[in-house]
Design brief:
Blueprint lengths: L11 H27 L5 H20 L1 H5 L1 H21 L7 H11 L2 H23 L4 H86 L7 H26 L10 H15 L3 E7 L7 H22 L3 E8 L3 E8 L18 H13 L3 E6 L5 E8 L13
Parallel strand pairs: 1-2
Antiparallel strand pairs: 2-3, 3-5, 4-5
Helix pairs in contact: 1-2, 2-4, 4-5, 4-6, 5-6, 5-7, 6-7, 7-8, 9-10, 10-11
């Protein structure tokens, strides 16, 4: 019989166990009815009828979908099967053997406490019924049913423990697969963004600057030309200057298109604030953003690195921390910029998270550290199991000459 309380689809092993239980109950009912007929017992006909009724009531369980889905319906069905079994026990002492498969049904279908109570009641009824048929009472009559109940409890609880462990492993495998997919996607995205940023920088520093210089030189040449503005040379110079202007505008559009989308037409603080708002809207936790210090223009590489670190940290918080609140703080500290992400989640032991263990999120920390180290920065993680996690990323600011922001920004 299927476990109806949050039970997943049956596997071949559980189907085989269910069929074994069905066959055992049918065989024991046939044994009780057959023995009654073979021994010419006074109530042989009634015993056969009650055994058949018990088989019909039991057969309704696997057939009716409601019994498989509803705990209340399963309890009612169990009570009906138990009533039929009690009636059979009154008629035949051989019905005591049916108690053993009933133990498994009760432990599988009912909550733990209710299942134990049902098993204890069934055990007491089996002992009492058998003693009544024998006309005497002995310790051996108690040992048999009690030992059967103990074995059933041990088997069912052992199976449930193995099932929980199997489910936990299955969830870990699913999470590991998702983590690997996220890692591959993050690495691909990081590579694409890095290449886009490189192309934008190259276009800005070469083509755009060269076209701007050509435009200025042609304007100077236009002013230095003798004669009127209607002369052929002046017109050609003006056309060349206009072509340089158009191509410079096109180059700048390329640079703008290659800028990271989250930072397009926005500052890093604005992107982080939107990230926190999106996280709060999509997940059951509150993410708040704070900005401290005097904001300074940052190189695009710094903005992209800090934004990606914040995205990865919030993703880890949502997936692993079980937090209700997370604080994201961007601090401008004069010669450096810092990003702090602090949550109130379950925390972990940073010393026990290997950098190359994809199952525990190590690749995320490794990627964040790599981003920081590539820009001469640092990443520190402080956490204690049960007391939340604090992540701090710091980047030094380059010299003012190196922090020139592209014209389109």
């Amino acid at each position: 019989m299927t476990v109806n309380t949050a039970t997943p689809s049956l596997t071949p092993t559980t189907r085989a166990l269910a069929w074994c239980l069905h066959l055992l109950i049918v065989a024991l009912l046939l044994l009780a009815a057959g023995r009654a007929v073979a021994d010419n017992e006074p109530h042989a006909a009634m015993t056969v009828v009650v055994a058949a009724a018990c088989a019909v009531v039991y057969a309704a369980g696997p057939v009716l979908p409601r019994i498989r889905r509803s705990l209340r319906a399963a309890a009612v069905w169990l009570a009906a099967v138990g009533a039929c079994w009690l009636a059979l026990l009154v008629l035949s002492a051989d019905a005591v053997w049916v108690a053993f498969p009933l133990f498994f049904l009760q432990l599988h279908l009912l909550p733990r406490r209710a299942g134990l109570a049902a098993v204890a009641t069934t055990t007491l009824a089996a002992i009492t019924g058998f003693a009544a048929h024998q006309g005497s009472f002995s310790l051996a009559m108690v040992i048999g049913p009690a030992l059967g109940a103990a074995v059933a409890v041990a088997v069912v609880w052992g199976y449930q423990a193995l099932f929980r462990e199997s489910e936990q492993r299955r969830r870990l495998i699913v999470e590991l697969t998702a983590t690997r997919a996220d890692l591959a996607s993050a690495q691909h995205t990081a590579g694409v963004l890095a290449e886009r940023e490189r192309l934008a920088r190259e276009i800005h520093d070469t083509l755009a600057q060269g076209l701007s210089s050509i435009q200025l030189l042609l304007r100077a040449a236009e002013r230095a030309l003798p004669g009127t503005e209607e002369s052929p040379a002046a017109r050609y110079v003006d056309q060349a200057r206009q072509a340089a202007v158009d191509n410079l505008a096109e180059a700048r559009r390329f640079v703008a298109a290659l800028t990271p989308p989250a930072l397009e037409d926005s500052t890093l603080a604005g992107a982080l604030e939107r990230l926190c708002a999106t996280t709060s809207a999509r997940h059951p936790l509150t993410a708040r953003f704070h900005l401290t210090g005097d904001p300074l223009p940052l190189p695009t590489a710094h903005e992209v690195a800090l934004l990606r670190v914040a995205q990865s940290a919030l993703a880890n918080t949502v997936r692993h921390a079980g937090a209700t609140r997370v604080e994201v703080t961007l601090s401008h500290l004069g010669d450096r910029v810092a990003l702090d992400v602090v949550d109130d989640g379950t925390g972990f032991d940073p010393d026990r998270v290997p950098d190359t263990d994809p199952g525990s999120g190590g690749f995320g920390l490794l990627a964040m550290r790599a981003r920081m180290h590539a820009l001469s920065g640092s990443l520190t993680v402080e956490s204690t199991p049960g007391r939340g996690t604090a992540l701090a990323a710091q980047l030094p600011l380059p010299a003012p000459a190196d922090t020139e922001i592209e014209d389109h920004r």
